[in-house]
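User: Can you help me understand a structure? I only have the sequence.
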Amino acid sequence: MMKTKLVSKYYLLTTILGLSLLSNAQQEKHNNVVYLGLGSYTITQDKSYQIKDFSPTIDLVYNRFLDDGFMVGAGYYFKHINYYIYELNGIDNIPCTEGNHSLMLSLGYKFNISAFNITPYIAAGVGFARYKLSEDYDSYKTKYDTFFMLSPGVRLGYEISRWMIFTSYNFNYYKCHPKVDLDSAFELILPYKQEYHSFNIGLGYMF
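Assistant: Let's start by predicting it. Here is the structure, written out as tokens:
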């Protein structure tokens, strides 16, 4: 009988301690989050460059959430695109890949729904792109291109302890100033603006 009472008290104390720790964990606020996202972009161009493709992307983002729900952040974004550029005469298509790097600042607001959260935001920044022609045209070297990028989006996250699983969508727009070293035989046309959609999934760590 005495042993049964001791076991009962042990389980009662264990339950109380567990509920206390759980309550403290729920009350603890993590205002800083680092996100690592992986995904693909669906490329869309104007009528001169009707490109639709899936290209790998990576983003690494830091967000600081304020007590009133607002968010400020900064991050690095990378995407890799395979597509075609054209000669000035519009006849020959030349295979080309583009590596695009950018640094972004962002503002947003987080809505909490239990363990879920929704964060609409807008990001803007600058960076550079590197165009690489196919081997048949490797004598024509491209230069780095600067651009302005604007990226409104929304992120849906689910919190587990200090971790967050998320998925996000962005509409992206950027302008660039392409410069290509060519001889006088012909000239290449590179896109000076792009519009595309991105869908990412990833993990976040809160602290």
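Now, to help you interpret it: The chain is about 15% helix and 60% strand. The longest helix spans residues 2-27. Let me know which part you'd like to focus on.
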